[in-house]
């Protein structure tokens, strides 16, 4: 990482090259829908945004699990290979909440940071899991204003094979 670009909050201004990739502290194997993925977990990452080209991983808001700093802007771009879709899960989510998420928010977009907006989230409710519709790249954009913070968020993602529409689950029936 290029230290000269990193400010006191351990962050790099969004959109610049050299954004730090979160440190990978723990790696283990998990069984996920019958396939083995190398799953990387990231804890206490101080990074603010980055271009994450991996099949799976996790990232968190700056300073997590402590409160995120004010006046942050971080953009994470999650990229996988063509033919995959990105599946995003929220493990923890706590931002300042207001009705329009004007103060602090996390936005999800399909594709690059100029892609179509999936949703803007704030407050203490865990956003629903999301699977990309149009491709193998998803961008998450976090912004905090000058006052009132929260504990931040922890996001986990996995690339899944694009095999057509998602499976439907019929309640009360178990597929064997
Ligand atoms: Ca705020």
From TrEMBL:
Matching Gene3D superfamilies: Spermadhesin, CUB domain (2.60.120.290)
InterPro entries named in the record: CUB_dom, Sperma_CUB_dom_sf, Spermadhesin-Link_domain
Record field: transmembrane: none
Alphabetical UniProt keywords: Disulfide bond
Domain CUB: 48-160
SUPFAM superfamilies reported for this sequence: Spermadhesin, CUB domain
Recorded coiled-coil stretches: none
Domain of life: Eukaryota
PANTHER family: CUBILIN-LIKE PROTEIN, TUMOR NECROSIS FACTOR-INDUCIBLE GENE 6 PROTEIN
Record-given protein name: CUB domain-containing protein
Biological source species: Poecilia mexicana
């Amino acid at each position: 990482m290029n230290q000269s670009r990193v400010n006191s909050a351990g962050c790099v201004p969004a959109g610049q090259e050299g954004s730090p990739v979160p440190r990978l502290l723990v790696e283990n194997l998990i069984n996920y829908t019958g396939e083995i993925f190398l799953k990387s977990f990231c804890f206490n990452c101080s990074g603010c945004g980055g271009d994450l080209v991996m099949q799976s991983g996790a990232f968190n808001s700056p300073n997590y699990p402590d409160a995120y700093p004010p006046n942050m802007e971080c953009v994470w771009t999650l990229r996988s290979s063509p033919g995959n879709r990105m599946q995003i899960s929220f493990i923890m989510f706590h931002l300042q909440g207001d009705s329009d998420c004007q103060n602090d928010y996390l936005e999800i977009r399909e594709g690059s940071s100029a892609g179509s907006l999936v949703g803007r989230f704030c407050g203490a409710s865990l956003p629903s899991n999301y699977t990309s519709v149009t491709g193998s790249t998803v961008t998450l954009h976090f912004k905090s204003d000058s006052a009132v913070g929260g504990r931040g968020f922890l996001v986990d993602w996995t690339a899944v094979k694009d095999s057509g529409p998602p499976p439907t689950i019929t309640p009360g029936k178990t597929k064997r």
